[in-house]
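lol so apparently i was supposed to do this last week
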Amino acid sequence: MKTQVAVIDFGSQYTQLIVRRIREQGYLARLFQPSELNVLKEINAIILSGGPRSVKEKNAPDIDFEYLKDLNIPVLGVCYGMQLLNIKWGGQVTPGIVREYGPATLSISDPQTLLKDVSNHSQIWMSHSDTVSQLPEGCRVLGENAAGIPVALQWNEQFYGIQFHPEVSHSKEGKKILKNFLSLVKEKPAFSIATFKDELMASVRDSIGGKKVVCGVSGGVDSTVLALLLHKANINVHPIFIDTGLLRKNESKEVHDQFKQLDVNIDIIAAKDRFLSVLKGIEDPEKKRQRIGDLFLDLFWERAGNMDIFAQGTLYPDVIESATSGSIASKIKTHHNRVQRILDLHKEGKVLEPLSTLFKDEVRALGKELGIPKDMLYRHPFPGPGLAVRIPGEVTEEKISILQEADAIYIHELKQAGWYEKIWQACTTLLPCKTVGVKGDERAYEHAIVLRAVISEDAMTADWVEIPYEVLRNISNKILNEVSHVNRVLYDISTKPPASIEWE
Ligand code: XMP
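anyway here it is w/ xanthosine-5'-monophosphate bound
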């Protein structure tokens, strides 16, 4: 499928969100590195992303501006992209000392093209330290922030720039701004998830041929979509499910039933003891992730033998947050499917990750196209390393079982109260300390459970959910009464950022 909009990645954590926002408007957008600009042909528009570097730094990421101009298509610079364009057009940028981060207001001075129909003083989202300090001749200011600093610029009929991030939902009218930009594109939108599915199946078939593919399944949306995609593409696929013992209560059986319903045979490996043994004495979250990731691979190899290709349902947030996408973004945490051995396999060309450019909601749309029932598609995400990253400190069998019981009550009660569907992800964490309480007139020195519920579009940012007090009270009572060794329940009211969704 032909790329219509190229997003040049200068390393912002949000770059792929731009891609997604553009796809939402029906244009096929893809991500490219700055050095790839010169090979782009037949593109309809270009967006230069934000990034963590300063344009004034030595060796700051750069582009071939003459090539960009010669393409003769609409260009939008976002944050770093805008500053870079301002310099290229002959203006100036001053490095800031403090990073401006968070909400700001947009005062519109020129409600044409880019800011057409955008409300004056609407909220925008900033994340930058440099500021445009001098404009080149002929540059028009379309909008300013409250301090009178230009935050939306137009250099000519095709080159635009904005200092804020239109791609994040906190920029209230960001979608409208991107839509206005896309109205400058000459070609019609040509992207839909249905055509994407057909192309994806065809390209996987082409790249794999008759090779044997081993595929890890977890029962979650991503790996279920992956397994069914491969199955329906007539690939020779061997789906393996590893029961790590770090799963939710009864999850192994549920996963088995789910695949039976989809008519896909899965091979189940029961490996609880082996996971417990590699986690023994380990407290560091990165080490836990590393060991779990390694054992996953050992088990796959033991079972599958000499396989040609290993497929996994990696999504884009897993790639970008582990900073292995070739982008300049900073490393946040190593997701289990981005451990070194997987990266080594990548180099050998033995890893297949057909979903790695997609976000969760796009994967759900793809799953719907493949005929996966809604209740499977809308299951809350569950991390690969499972409950291990919800037990800060050493993971033990006793702690897992306490957490499984508490989690089962939490999820069940959320469903009963009609809140499960409204929540993007709900999870429980077992704190690495005991606290004093009273049970039946006796001193109780027992565990504390943290409940967390977030809404998110794509796991890159998240907000905590205002679950009604009576629902929380009921959940807390049930956990305190029914789960042994727990005497305290807390509710996590942290947004991401700065917190992440999981505690580890
Ligand atoms: P964080 O905690 O990074 O989580 O805000 C974002 C989303 O990713 C899930 N998560 C993982 N998923 N392997 C996965 O497949 C992992 O190692 C992993 N770590 C976190 C998390 O549950 C949330 O949905």
